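[job 0412] stage=fold_complex status=start
inputs:
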Amino acid sequence: MFALVDCNNFYASCERVFQPQLKNKPIVVLSNNDGCVIARSNEAKKCGIPMGAPAFEHKELFEKEKIHVFSSNYALYGDMSSRVMDLLTEFTPEIEVYSIDEAFLKFEGFETHFNFEDIGRKIRHRIYKGTGIPVSVGFATTKSLAKAANKVAKKFPDKTSHVYVMDTDAKRIKALKWLAVANVWGIGHQHAARLEKIGVKSAYEFTQLSDEWVKKHMSVVGLRLKKELQGTECLEMEIPASKKDIATTRSFDKNYTEFDDLKERVSTFAVTCAEKLRKQKSCANTLMVFLHTNGYRKDLPQYARNYLLQLPFPTNSAIELSKQATLALKKIFRKGYAYKKAGVIVMDFSPENYDQINLFNNINPKHRKLMETLDQLNEGMGTHKIKLASQDLERTWKMRQEKLSPRYSTRIQEAIKVKA
DNA sequence: TCTGGGGTCCTAGGACCC
DNA sequence: TCTGGGGTCCTAGGACCC
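[job 0412] stage=fold_complex status=done
writing structure:
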């Protein structure tokens, strides 16, 4: 049996934990730069705020409905997430953290001895008591079905109390007939549109298509999904692997036109990539820089380029990556455009302590010590106290975060105060 | 005025090999 | 007019996820 445990409206719930007076009040959480709505409490959903809605278009609705608006606070959500995941390991050693707010659990050999309804209720209770976050739990015999079961648990709280066990074929079929094909895990916009065109509306109807059709139009990924929905296990629990790509990209709060401004941004992104690389003890062999103008501004000239370069040797040095990223930026920067977004992506990793034989170039051994020291200092002092000269010109760049909540759970100065 | 960020997997087609 | 067969590796692009 697989369980999918999913935190309800996770970011909104995290904010509510520390402001319990917001219980039953509508809450939304915005993306970086306070751009779009990326999380909504149930009450906010009822007010008709769509997922991904640009904040500026809904300002009036926010006011009218007295919606509590938050900038995203990833320090808080990340910490709350690891608390939730820690508690989940009490129920089974087999856990796959699938995203910041979801995990698969596997229960093997328990089938005849355990009452999964009961386990589900215990999980909910434990997580709520331990973190204040409400979760929904779906049980089924494959991961894809567990995802579907979770949707049932979430959609019918009155009937399920947020726990649904899909343990018979009758329940499976009933759930799949209810589940719209567009809401199936693994079916996105494109496939949903194609399926609806041929008259397939429910997940159940999808499972009735021929293997050949599914394979032809949706590749083996679609075929695996079909089997999974029929109850044949095709997707295993995954062990966390090191990342294969690492990206640091941002939209800017305003348009940038000058090379030096872009250079400062790109250099900083490279430094962050280097830090992420060191955290997983990898070195990158390839680096890409991209930049583009604001695609929504049809009135302005548009420009978008990326530049991919092979690094002279595998590295996770902030100095080297910053230097190479600046070189790449020089190749694609054109004057006369208003840039809105840029990013650095590093790829093609090798292990940190694997010294490739390279006759002419290799990492400057001084960088290694320097990076270690940098990591230690930044860890002790809070992020990014120590920077490269190329990062700070005259100005410090800021994200727009007008509604940021405190980092209650990770900064002692920002912890919640309880009156005696 | 304002519209997020960071990942994974699969396939088709081209280049190249013997 | 006709011009083999069977591989591998790489890349770009498309699809998906949260």
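[job 0412] summary: The two ends of chain A are 47 Å apart (CA to CA).
[job 0412] exit 0
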